[in-house]
Amino acid sequence: MIQAPVVRVVGDDITMGIFPIKEAIAIAEEQGLDLVEISPTANPPVCKVVDYKKFLYEQKRKQKEMKAKAAKVVVKEIRLGPNTDDHDFNFKLKHAMKFLQDGCKVKVDVFFRGRSIVYKEQGEIILLKFAQELVDYGKPEQLPRLEGKRMIMILTPKK
After folding, report:
1. In DSSP terms, which residues pair with 153 in a beta bridge?
2. Which fold has domain 6-68?
3. Is the pTM here over 0.70, yes or no?
4. Listed residue (138, 92, 136, 87) closest to 111, CA to CA
């Protein structure tokens, strides 16, 4: 599947150099291995003499390791009402502080039941007050936004 007429051959126990494609394939077959194109954009393209199955296995393993090292974002959710009392507000505020200190994102939402949807301003005031209280621990990633019967705000931890 290699298109180039001339390739640079690399690998273990092989004389490295620039060879015509037929000679490079012959070198690989002589070793009982495969010729794999590593860098097709180079001039001339770089091919490596390796066992192709082993090459694929190594690539998969590297991708798995990269995926495992990637940071996983955890989103914790805190639900308030438009008429949440001060004690409940402070209780949930402490939980949000702990979540932000642990490095989690916090999704705070005000759920409007029945006719309480008329008090959208009250819900927005509660969310902004919540963000103001947590200014030392995190910053708002997304300001309050109404989605159906919920007003949602997302806070991210400060580094």
Report:
1. 108
2. Ubiquitin-like (UB roll) (3.10.20)
3. no
4. 92
Beta bridge partners of 145: 152
Domain boundaries, the chain: 6-68, 75-157
Q: What is the DSSP letter of 114?
A: G
Mean per-residue pLDDT over the chain, rounded: 89
Residue 45 to residues 34, 65, 98, Cα–Cα distance (Å):
16, 28, 54
75-157 CATH: 3.30.110.10
71 has a pLDDT exceeding 80: no
Q: What is the pLDDT of residue 61?
A: 95
The two structure tokens encoding residue 146: 């109404």
Instruction: Count CA atoms within 13 Å of residue 11 on its CB side.
Output: 27
Q: Residue 128 belongs to what H/E stretch? A: helix 120-133
